[in-house]
Specification:
The chain crosses the membrane at residues 30-47, 101-123. By secondary structure, the protein is mostly helical. The chain has helices at 2-22, 30-44, 57-76, 79-95, 101-123. Helix 1 packs across helix 2 (30-44).
Amino acid sequence: MFNQIKTWAKGLKKNIYVLYLAYKDPRVPWYAKVFTICVVAYAFSPIDLIPDFIPILGYLDDIILVPLGIMLALKMIPKDVIAECEMKAQEMMSKGKPKNWIAGSIILVIWFLILIWILKMIYFR
């Protein structure tokens, strides 16, 4: 059972890289790009919708939302684009984890702005 979970997790990781590569492809429709960017950003984001420290519910978003988003995004993208991106993703994974500091910084800035907005709404009504 542990090996099945490990294989499933590696498949999710590969699919995240596939989506990361696919959203840059000009053959992907704009609505699929927008959805794909949201899924990839959420998957790579260090901040979850439901914090992991909340028992059981904290991991539900990682177990349900991310795979569901991946599945939906893959259905929106043309099959030939997915096939090409799967080969590129396999190459990327064999070389090691890619690091995109710009994307990570943008995600953190967005979450920070959301936090400021929430605090402003709470304290400055």
